[in-house]
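Extended Data, panel c. Modelled sequence:
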Amino acid sequence: MNRRMTAWVSAMVFLTCAAAQAETVAITGARIHTMGPAGTIEGGTLLLDDGKVSAVGKDVTIPAGARRIEATGKVVTPGLLDSLTTLGLVEVGAVEGSNDTTATEDRFTAALDVVDGINPRSILFPITRIEGVTRAVVVPRPGPGLLAGRGALIHLRTEGSGWLIKSSLAMVAVLGEAGAQRVGGSRAAALLELREAFQDAVDYGANRAAFDRGDRRPYALSRLDLEALQPVVQGETPLLVAVDRASDIEAALRLARDFRLKLIVAGGGEAWMVAPALAAAGVPVLLDPLANLPASFETLGATLESAARLHQAGVTVAFMTNDAHSVRNLRQAAGNAVTYGMPWDAALA
């Protein structure tokens, strides 16, 4: 952990200073993890112009007048990404006026676009950047329904208007215990309700003209929700399902197979128990490496070795905090994953 701390001190110094002063900065002598074709460069130089990387390598020519940061013995890496957060949606969770994480009415579910609620000037952004996190996926929390709405990928910059990287990144849904509670206490009913939503979306997409004329059967969802689900049922936008229990993950896999959906598992407390099926289906898992306590009966199999076991089985793993205020702890989570068996470079990726 000391090595990672040193790395991010140097990395964040050059990022914040370069962006603020619009100058040329050269970081020299560092061990640079490019996470690209150049691999890891020992004793390398990274050059930034106006806050953007312009060159990286062993023998980079440093322009006259560039500000040099000596980083011998230190590590430089790209900024981290938190794959599931509520950054920009909440400042103080207990203050209702500053909390836009959840829509408590079910008039709109799938149609909800998280972008419209994000505050890019949140005081949490600079705090999070200090700890090396430069990008984040922001998602709405589920309200009374199973579908929460659409998430987005953002950059944690507070200057200018370039904070939005991609809107409608994924459609968020919930299953397992939380899903069952929203439909009367039955996991089977939750799956059935989601199946009805996707069946309606498929039917609506094939019969828009008839719907507009009033010649189609009633649908369970609103027109806007059905429109929002079109990229999902067409396999363009992933369905991100919050789910933990191994059997619930298997049910989500069946749902994705039946409707040809791109599935992402979030939470995945027992995902390692069905890792071969996830790997075979090409389904990634968003995981909190620190979540190892059986907080409920659906996470009895949670373990600190989850990330390592999933990676070893060939499952793509990304780290998440599923929070706004603790995103700054993402480095610690990655370090714990490495401690419990995940390769260093895989944890960084």
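The chain has a mean pLDDT of 91. This feature is highlighted in the accompanying rendering.
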